[in-house]
Amino acid sequence: MKRLPIPDDVTGEEIDQDVRQELLSLPKGLAEDVSRNLVMVARLIDEDPETAYAYSRIALRLASRVAAVREAAGFAAYANQKFSEALAEFRAARRMTGSVELWPVMADCERGLGRPEKALEMAGAPEVQKLDKASQVEMRLVAAGARRDMDQLDAAIVTLQSPELASNSVQPWTARLRYAYADALLAAGREGEAREWFAKTVESDKDGSTDASDRLAEMDGVEFVDALVEDDEAGSAVTTEVVTETRAADEHQDADEDDVDDLDEDDEDEDDEDEDEDDEIESVTKDVTAADDVDDLDGEDEDDDAPRRPQS
User: Fold this and answer.
1) First to last CA, the chain
2) pLDDT of residue 218 exceeding 70
3) 102-127 pLDDT tens trace
4) Contact 179, 210 (CB under 8 A)
């Protein structure tokens, strides 16, 4: 038989006294082994239902004739939506103990199996009268759920209307009952009343077992944004702004460099023009000088050609 590891700090002392009493029928070593597996089921059933289910199957193989083990196996299967298996385990536990306390969860298994009519039948059975107040409220919740499964919203609302719902005292079941009522009202399109009852649910839900506050905020149009996402978006905006400014600065610098290049080219053009003018002036000067030289030579030739006077 495959065993799952169990932490050393887990002892059978953590289980309920009534369960420990039931395990006394087992040999001491076996009882300790079963109890430690049951402790792991209780620890993990909410956060890791699959692993809890695995531990429950080990306990079931070790002590299938113990009602508490059958019940734990039923709840582990129920948490994993294995409704047929859960219903079988709950029925076995009920046969062993004769108790009706599992009646509401058995009815909910019928709902899970797609048999809401059966769940309603169980809600009207004599066994319900034997339930304590908490279990009767639970049975009312299951019956209302079955009505909704059958698209009978108005009937679901009426089913939840009870002295427990109207009471101002806060009991362990109060938040769940008010939440179910508010949700049914909202499904029926009665938004104003639904908002009122979601607000009442928030008042009574001290341990946050429901998401009534989120539902209420959603109805009021409040949108929650993850702070981390908001920071990332802000960071992205800053980064974009910096990049934009950097690009603008680069473009401005490029423009300045282009202007400088244009000025340099203009200076070079002016220098070329000045050089051309100097060359032109120099050429003209040379031409003038050359012309003067020619005139001087012509003057000398004329002097040579003129008649000379006799010396006296």
Assistant:
1) 165
2) yes
3) 999 999 999 999 999 999 999 999 99
4) yes
Tokens at residue 306, please? 């003129």
Cα separation values, 277 from 73, 280, 287, 290, Å? 110, 5, 15, 20
How big is the chain by its Cα radius of gyration, in Å?
A: 50
Query: How confident is the model at residue 298, as a pLDDT?
Result: 44
Show Cβ contacts of residue 79 under 8 Å, excluding neighbours closer than 6 positions.
45, 46, 49, 52, 53
Give the distance between the most distant pair of CA atoms in the chain: 181
Average pLDDT along the chain: 81
Closest CA relative to residue 92, chosen from 60, 124, 120: 60
- Asked whether 210 and 183 are in contact (CB, 8 A), the reply is no
**pTM greater than 0.85 (yes/no):** no
Angle in degrees, CA 164, 169, 173, rounded to 5: 55
User: What is the per-residue pLDDT for 155?
Assistant: 98
Instruction: Name residue 305's amino acid.
Output: D
Q: How far apart are CA 203 and CA 121, in angstroms?
A: 33
SS3 call for 38:
helix
Looking at residue 48, what DSSP letter applies? -
